Amino acid sequence: xxxxxxxxxxxxxxxxxxxxxxxxxxxxxxxxxxxxxxxxxxxxxxxxxxxxxxxxxxxxxxxxxxxxxxxxxxxxxxxxxxxxxxxxxxxxxxxxxxxxxxxxxxxxxxxxxxxxxxxxxxxxxxxxxxxxxxxxxxxxxxxxxxxxxxxxxxxxxxxxxxxxxxxxxxxxxxxxxxxxxxxxxxxxxxxxxxxxxxxxxxxxxxxxxxxxxxxxxxxxxxxxxxxxxxxxxxxxxxxxxxxxxxxxxxxxxxxxxxxxxxxxxxxxxxxxxxxxxxxxxxxxxxxxxxxxxxxxxxxxxxxxxxxxxxxxxxxxxxxxxxxxxxxxxxxxxxxxxxxxxxxxxxxxxxxxxxxxxxxxxxxxxxxxxxxxxxxxxxxxxxxxxxxxxxxxxxxxxxxxxxxxxxxxxxxxxxxxxxxxxxxxxxxxxxxxxxxxxxxxxxxxxxxxxxxxxxxxxxxxxxxxxxxxxxxxxxxxxxxxxxxxxxxxxxxxxxxxxxxxxxxxxxxxxxxxxxxxxxxxxxxxxxxxxxxxxxxxxxxxxxxxxxxxxxxxxxxxxxxxxxxxxxxxxxxxxxxxxxxxxxxxxxxxxxxxxxxxxxxxxxxxx
Length: 605
Prior knowledge:
The chain is an alpha+beta fold. Helix content is 63%, strand content 14%. It is built from 16 helices and twelve strands. The chain has helices at residues 5-72, 75-96, 104-126, 133-222, 236-255, 258-275, 294-300, 304-307, 312-315, 319-330, 372-408, 413-443, 456-465, 468-473, 493-509, 564-574, and strands spanning 280-283, 289-292, 335-342, 345-355, 361-370, 451-454, 477-482, 489-492, 516-524, 527-534, 578-584, 588-596. It has a five-stranded antiparallel beta sheet with strand order 2-1-5-4-3, sandwiched between helices. Strands 7-9-10-12-11 form a five-stranded mixed beta sheet. Strands 6-8 form a two-stranded antiparallel ribbon. A hairpin with a 5-residue loop joins strand 1 and strand 2. Helix 1 runs antiparallel to helix 4 and helix 12 (413-443) runs parallel beside helix 16 (564-574). It starts with a helix and ends in a 9-residue tail after the last strand. The chain crosses the membrane at residues 9-32, 179-200.
């Protein structure tokens, strides 16, 4: 009967499962035995020890009550004595029903006898209210205390019995554990030897045809797919060898018709390019035109028959486009895009490579997406927002100025509070509008950075000058720590200053009085890192992923606009840097700005 790989491996794994099942079964049986012994040990002896200890504590308290009664004759000690009597019998009944060791029953009886006598003698003291303290003390010393000591000794005797029982059972448990361990180790060794023998025998038998098939496939590849594989079995491996031989025959047939296939694939690719409704140009490694679609011919008034094999600048004379392509190849990116204007038309130009069958770059695809209309709408939106903001800011400024004048005038304090609220809310609205305009300015395609080289430390020191007064009003200490030889950086000094001002403002605003704000600047390889750290209210774990989102504010934030950190993030990213936050609620926050040293920031702005 033929046995396929499935049946063979099923037998192999069934054997392995059987071995594992035997080991697991023996292990579970021994663990259950150990558990049974452990449960008995914990449930009986420890309960007896606990009950005995509780009775001893109760007797001590009763003895103390007797002494206190003799000295003070207060009735509360007698009442407490009789209450404890009930608790003692409760523990005694439990102990009497939980006898675990030989001799423990006699000990319980002795405890009962001693306790009854102790109670009898104690009652004699409590009823002697007419006797003097010296007389009661004499009765206590001669009759009560000896009985108390005898009772304590009997309780200690029961406790010692159970402790000895615990030790004996612990030794028994250890013996069982040792026996179980030796049994499991011996059984595991025997079964592992058996399993290894089975595996060595059958794995070699199963894998031999596969190894031979692998060698034949390698030889077939080296011989140009002329070598045939050997069919050694009738299972799946043998079937695979037969199918590989058939594939070799098909490959040899295909080799004779490769040119036709290549032409077919070429026609498919050209049909795909032609079907795209936006202009596309295909270039080789030397920026020479290989192909372009009909839309490109119409858009740029070109003819493929004329411009084929010509440089891209001979077809489209736009230096910005050539710079974009050159930069893309220079920096080895997989894909890039840039907004470029060509003859009063704005395009979103996307660049990517096309690969050959060996995944090697063979040329470049330039895709032009006409966004002129989108750009026109964007410009209209910018003009509308700027005009609307101006129309809002003008009366708002007048309102704030009027409120400030009223606030400084001699008016009732209640009205002053209302005027101050108007002034503060006006400032918040004005700040919100300014931040909104900044974000809109950054998001627009017309945004440019005023690039210059400057000292980051001088920038930070200039920003700090504007916050010392505010910090002093809250008794906040501002500390600075700068590495030596911090190099100058390249960027927009005004925009980076706004980011640092925003971080310093937040650090002081959300810090408690007498707190500390620390600014650190250090160099890390090719970057400059600026840390602004405070020990204020901190940020909750739930708010962390959202703090750089626009208009997002924490639950407890009633003053912010939700735009400051979002704007800061976008400004830093314009400088090819990043901003990070580390914070814990109630312990403060650390904001870290990472900026590159040097670099051409204007490439993508």
